[in-house]
Design a protein that fits this description.
By secondary structure, the chain is of the alpha+beta class. It has eight helices and 13 strands.
């Protein structure tokens, strides 16, 4: 195997979890692959450093490169091998899977998925179940962990017009209930009808309405990354719709339990809410 679980690599594995800033337990970034929880290290927030040198013209692109460096702590030789694999097959997941378990195992799994009639057998999410158990676990760690961090690092902000943050992430006195509660997202005051953008390429998993959130939508970006958008005036897409990063899909509003027109934006990684401002570009 080209990739090993070094102490620094293990630290990188918790990079996104530690952005929460406190010591709860939460599922791993590959929670969509397997259930379970890991202890959250009680350390300071990790600052993601820029790569020491720009990637080769045909090498693993950003933000995948930065994510791979944080999660895997690869040697120069390993990073060069990942770049070479990407140059021959420009799919980041393929290059990472080759680094984790070798191309032969990946191609055998793809062949088995194709023979079984699976749609898109080349997709890692499809053919991973045909990998041997040990290879599957290592590939999940490398591909899933890097992809999750890369997805989070590349999130677009959901509001394009100038605005402030009226209420941030964390414990607060609820403005209506007057009790101390966790505010699991950020409140962005904007006029009713302001376009709302998808934070990343996504599938719409929920479109609904209730007394608390008003009209709302939940987007699944893959690799355990989900965003939700509440108090909307309207949602212009249906459940299961496919969205591009930055695509307008809804309009902000003042529905549900709200003190004024705003968008309540939530980011969840591995099923747990994190501060979206940590990922604002």
């Amino acid at each position: 195997m080209l990739v090993t679980r070094s102490p620094l690599g293990a630290l990188g594995w918790f990079a996104v979890e530690r952005l929460r800033g406190h010591g709860a337990e939460m599922p791993t970034l590959t929670a969509f692959f397997a259930t379970g929880a890991v202890p959250l290290p009680d350390t300071a927030t990790l600052v993601l450093a820029a790569p020491a040198a720009p990637p080769p013209a045909e090498g693993l692109p950003e933000p995948w490169r930065s994510a791979a460096i944080v999660v895997l702590s690869p040697s120069d030789e390993t990073l060069a091998a990942i770049d070479a694999s990407y140059a021959s097959s420009p799919v980041p997941e393929d290059a990472l899977e080759d680094a984790a378990i070798g191309r032969d195992l990946r191609e055998r799994a793809v062949a088995r998925a194709r023979a079984s009639g699976d749609a898109e057998p080349e997709s890692y999410a499809v053919h991973r179940r045909y990998l041997p158990n040990n290879a599957q676990r290592e590939a999940d760690r490398v591909v899933g962990g890097t992809a999750a961090l890369a997805t989070a690092l590349d999130l677009a902000w959901p509001i394009a017009v100038p605005h402030r943050v009226a209420s941030g992430f964390g414990e607060r006195i609820h403005p209506i209930l007057k009790t101390r509660k966790l505010h699991n997202g950020v409140d962005l005051p904007v006029p009713v009808g302001t376009p709302v953008l998808a934070a990343q390429a996504a599938r719409v998993t929920v479109v609904g309405e209730d007394g608390l959130n008003g009209r709302f939508a939940v987007l699944d970006h893959g690799y355990g990354i989900r965003t939700s958008y509440c108090h909307l005036d309207g949602v212009d897409v249906a459940r299961d719709a496919a969205l591009d990063r930055g695509q307008v899909f809804a309009r902000s509003g003042n529905t549900g339990r709200s003190t004024g027109p705003h968008l309540h934006y939530t980011l969840k990684i591995g099923g747990r809410a994190v501060d979206p401002l940590r990922f604002r570009r």
